[in-house]
Amino acid sequence: QEVLGEDKLMAILKERELKIYWGTATTGKPHVAYFVPMSKIADFLKAGCEVTILFADLHAYLDNMKAPWELLELRTRYYENVIKAMLESIGVPLEKLKFVRGTDYQLSKEYTLDVYRLSSVVTQHDAKKAGAEVVKQVEHPLLSGLLYPGLQALDEEYLKVDAQFGGVDQRKIFTFAEKYLPSLGYAKRVHLMNPMVPGLTGSKMSSSEEDSKIDLLDRKEDVKKKLKKAFCEPGNVENNGVLSFIKHVLFPLKSEFVVLREEKWGGNKTYTAYEALEKDFAEQVVHPGDLKNSVEVALNKLLDPIREKFNSPELKKLTNAAYPNPSKAKPAEKGTKNSEPENVVPSRLDIRVGKVISVEKHPDADSLYVEKIDVGEPEPRTVVSGLVQFVPKEQLQDRLVVLLCNLKPQKMRGVESQGMVLCASSVGEPRQVEPLDPPAGCCAGERVYVEGYEGGEPDDELKPKKKVFEKLQADFRISEDCVAQWKQKNFLTKLGRVSCKSLKGGSIS
């Protein structure tokens, strides 16, 4: 998408082949968007470049401890195996690649001294700005996150490369490296950037947002389920993760894309140019359902060899050890008490942004209303509530709300309610209630999470007897600046904090 230092790149190529590196922090599981850099690495190799892949294990720890120290080794081994499997699935010869771990050289005396030298010339402002798109942003950042961009800059020197390749979200770190490496007497490098693939919910595909991404080891039924829920509005080509995946992954790998459809709808059609497919989708010649089905088939062909490789007992064991499921406590043997208490954490709640698309009076209850709420699924959810007592019906229509989606559905006066709108409530009388407000710009279906608990998997359904929501709800509060919190950690979407209008110090129910 962008190149910084093209003149230097051309000058090097007149003398020899380019030495380039791509790095990845070993945090959450790699997902299908990783095929974008992988396909470009294949291009670099075909062009004769010397390519190094860096498994940035130390960076993973520095980024707000996304990878606990005790799991670093396991996650790095997982990344090494899964990325090699990805490259093999698209036909990249591994013998032409060099694989390096960050801790192989980043703990050396020379590197450590350079970190200190760099910290003596870099301002806190520049360090924070450089990591803004990459390092997890919190209100009171840790020093480790401020060190992160400096380490990435020094990697260019210690890996002895001419260029660094990464996503366009790395641009601020790349310009940071260009500014500060010369101050240590090191050369400015070339930087090449690939585009970021929108996730299935319409924003950046992220390891920490489960609904936005397809994991490389997802089962075929999971791929089908996630694609079925993906944002793919008829005729809308903006922030369309399904179309973007075709553009940035499937077309570069295959040079064509086949839309599969029944004969009565015109039969299969092969596209050799992405622009023609996008035009047909915009004009609604191609139906979203056919597009999703076709991507599902193509994607499973890419994932099958990776799934097969990770079906071995050794790699299954590695995967489970590197990414233990925090939400599933080990069940007790029959007749014995479980000595380990159940892990009740906010990531077990499936909380999403919803858009109210209709509000109707309950047929059998004067104080209840039936709302249809879009949460990014093919069909809207039916929710029964008494919200209209506090918010006028016309103000609820088309409003964005925050919905708890994995409560067990229950009938309320004969109408099944499939979720609960989370609201702030005042303390004391008269009782006031305000729906929680997602940040402006959110889309229906976006996940809401608690700061620090982005990576966990929500339960499929909260069991009423376990009272998981009730235990967590005891620590839900509205802060003095009207932000929704659990144990003083903010409710967030990828666009920022969840809040309410005015009920400071209130509870959340």
Automatic annotation (TrEMBL):
SUPFAM superfamilies given in the database record: Nucleic acid-binding proteins, Nucleotidylyl transferase
Classification via InterPro entries: aa-tRNA-synth_Ic, NA-bd_OB-fold, Rossmann-like_a/b/a_fold, tRNA-bd_dom, Tyr-tRNA-ligase, Tyrosine-tRNA_ligase_regulator
E.C. no: 6.1.1.1
Entry keyword Ubl conjugation: no
Listed Basic and acidic residues bias regions: 330-340
Domain TRNA-binding: start-end pairs: 345-449
Protein name: Tyrosine--tRNA ligase
Stretch list, region Disordered: 318-345
Reactions accelerated catalytically: tRNA(Tyr) + L-tyrosine + ATP = L-tyrosyl-tRNA(Tyr) + AMP + diphosphate + H(+)
GO BP, sorted A to Z: response to stress; tyrosyl-tRNA aminoacylation
Molecular functions (GO terms): ATP binding; tRNA binding; tyrosine-tRNA ligase activity
Family from the record: Belongs to the class-I aminoacyl-tRNA synthetase family.
Keywords in alphabetical order: Aminoacyl-tRNA synthetase, ATP-binding, Cytoplasm, Ligase, Nucleotide-binding, Nucleus, Protein biosynthesis, RNA-binding, tRNA-binding
Intracellular or extracellular location(s): Cytoplasm; Nucleus
Phylogenetic placement of the source organism: Eukaryota, Metazoa, Chordata, Craniata, Vertebrata
Transmembrane annotation, as ranges: none
Pfam families given in the database record: tRNA-synt_1b, tRNA_bind
GO cellular component: cytoplasm; nucleus
